[in-house]
Specification:
single chain, 478 residues, alpha+beta, five-stranded antiparallel β-sheet, five-stranded mixed β-sheet, 21% strand, globular
């Protein structure tokens, strides 16, 4: 007789060897996702992962994919979708209404490309300079605040938090660059530097005035005595007053080279001031001519005409490649103006969620256009869904042009081995890292993925590297 113990052992071995090699590996070797989640750089963090195959309609990986996360700049994917959906092929830079032979109403649209250094052609400026009639800003289209809901108020001096406005100019920032250093005695004197400043310390001659917005610099810049005493005008920084465009030069531990500071916009008043002082366009008035509601039907001479400024994708591409917060905020406000007739984040977000985005897997908490706010809450499934909608509605080739690939933009130091096979949007806030996009695998399968990491305590660089390993594994094995 055969010993029962021996028979049991034989059966067990037979079962083990009857399994395919792939099944045996799956039992003994953790998946790429498990390796990522076990990485020490994610210790204590919250992570959501969703990897989806459009060809099969199934998820390859899913971990907390229906849970909510602060997405940082991944929020821009939703603003980008709205812009692609409603801004057409070209941006509306300005609306105008021929009121009479001597007056014209102009209507700001929120276009951030007006006199922005990225755009050499400026059709709106050309129109304003050529127009001989008086220009009246006659529409109450601005129903927003300069800062978004939940923004960090003390970041107002940082270039990534330019104020929002109905008619932006120069990207709503002041740019200051240091020339070759030349020391001069500190004394306040009347001095003109190419119309840039009217009263400045003569020792500031080493600042390149050509980078400075003329009328946005206060007539007198305050310099702290400590700057002269400690640094001989080399080690300093420049800060703007919270509620004005007065600048203060302060001693700093490092040498100053250049800076970009958001200016105080004061809604439309600032742009009117700049156009008058810098371009001689002194015909603009901050009042409207007439209420169109007085007319049963708007006469032809009062119909609103538009001036197109730039191709829409020439705005959306840098917005996504360098994660431009200002462009993203103004894009969403422009969509609001186009669709609702006024600029308001809350109103357009509510409208989009009830119409175009009503099929999202989970309804997000969406409060701004850029992702600067930590009030934003999205799920990985939401991002995969919006990316799938963008591919379906606008085509994958257009998405490839708008999103950065490996070695480009915010992916400059990442995914270089799979350049042109990954197209994705990054997101970073303190303690938050996000990446969502398209991946064309080694076997030429397309995957749509979203990876959201919240509340990590390590460096963002290390978290991004851990995510990169996971994505590279996806590319290699699928």
């Amino acid at each position: 007789m055969i010993n029962k113990s021996w028979l049991s052992l034989v059966v067990t071995v037979a079962i083990l060897f009857s399994c395919s090699p792939s099944k045996r590996i799956a039992v003994t070797v953790p998946s790429s996702m498990e390796i990522l989640l076990a990485d020490s750089v994610l210790a204590g963090s919250h992570t959501g992962i969703y990897v989806y195959s459009p060809s099969t309609g199934k998820a390859l990986f899913s971990h907390q994919s229906d849970k909510y996360f602060v997405p940082a700049s991944n929020t821009k994917l939703f603003s980008c979708y709205a812009g692609m959906k409603y801004l057409g092929d070209s941006l509306v830079g300005l609306g105008y209404q021929n009121f009479s032979d001597t007056a014209i109403n102009i209507f700001p649209t929120g276009d951030p490309t007006f006199l922005h250094s990225d755009f050499t052609e400026q059709p709106v400026l050309d129109f304003l300079k050529m127009e001989k009639r008086s220009l009246y800003i006659g529409k109450n289209e601005w129903k927003e605040n300069a800062f978004g809901k939940g923004w960090s108020w003390d970041d107002y001096n940082e270039s990534y938090m330019a104020e929002r406005s109905p008619m932006p100019i120069y990207g709503n920032t002041i740019k200051i660059k240091l020339k070759e250093f030349q020391y001069r005695p500190h004394q306040n004197v009347q001095r003109s530097i190419g119309l840039k400043w009217t009263t400045v310390p003569s020792s500031l001659d080493n600042l390149d005035s050509s980078f400075i917005l003329p009328s946005m610099i206060a007539s007198k810049i305050e310099m702290r005595d400590s700057v002269i005493e400690k640094s001989a005008l080399q080690n300093f920084n420049i800060r703007r007053d919270r509620n004005s465009n007065a600048l203060t030069i302060n001693y700093a531990s490092s040498k100053f080279t250049q800076t970009e500071i958001p200016f105080f916009t004061d809604t439309k008043a600032t742009v009117v001031h700049i156009l008058e002082k810098d371009f001689g366009i002194n015909k603009i008035r901050l009042t409207g001519m007439s209420d169109n509601s007085l007319y049963p039907e708007i006469p032809k001479h009062l119909q609103i005409h538009v001036i197109h400024s730039q191709p829409t994708d020439s705005l959306l591409k840098p917005m996504m490649h360098r994660s431009d917060n200002f462009f993203a905020e103004q894009t969403l406000l422009m969509v609001s103006n186009e669709k609702l007739g006024y600029m308001n984040d809350r109103a357009i977000i509510d409208t989009l969620l009830k119409t175009d985005l009503k099929d999202l897997p989970q309804k997000p908490v969406w409060v701004d256009g850029s992702g600067l706010s930590r009030y934003n809450l999205f799920t990985p499934q939401d991002f995969v869904k919006i990316l799938e909608k963008m591919k379906t509605e606008f085509g994958i080739e257009r998405m490839k042009n708008i999103l950065p690939t490996g070695g480009e933009g915010t992916l400059t130091s990442l995914y270089k081995p799979i350049a042109n096979q990954i197209f994705a949007k990054t997101g970073t806030l303190s303690g938050q890292v996000a990446l969502s996009g398209y991946l064309f695998t080694k076997n030429n399968s397309m995957l749509i993925f979203s990876i959201l990491v919240n509340n990590h305590t390590g460096t963002a660089t290390n978290v991004r590297k851990a995510v990169e390993k996971f994505v590279m594994s996806l590319w290699e094995k699928n």
